[in-house]
Amino acid sequence: MPTPKQMEKLAAEAARRPSPSTAAPEAPLPAEYWESVLKDPRADTTGAQMRQRRLSEIQRHVLRVSCRRCERTVEIQTADAVRLYGANAVWKDVAERLLDNTCQQRTGRHEEDGCWPAFETP
After folding, report:
1. Phi, psi at residue 11, to the nearest 5°?
2. First to last CA, the chain
3. How far apart are CA 68 and CA 2, in angstroms?
4. Taking the model in full, what pTM does it have?
């Protein structure tokens, strides 16, 4: 443990050192930051938009959905999903059908049984 004299010395040294300039939390972010965020390819589609897309609009090779209750994951190739469910099928509906009646966490109540889909990006 430092002595009181050593603590005073450390405090004086800290006060003399220039502090690194940090922006205030309320300060606006620089334009370069926003440009890089918007140029990021992951900014194109939000999860909600992806769930509402038709299978014919999805460019990914593999689609993945998992259950938030039982942690089961189902993957399907987009081409197979189109072949089985049709090109106009909505991904959200297809994912729910893939997980339908297979949840390992059963409560016995019809309203609560079944998987809770969590859409993932492979």
Report:
1. -65, -40
2. 52
3. 52
4. 0.53
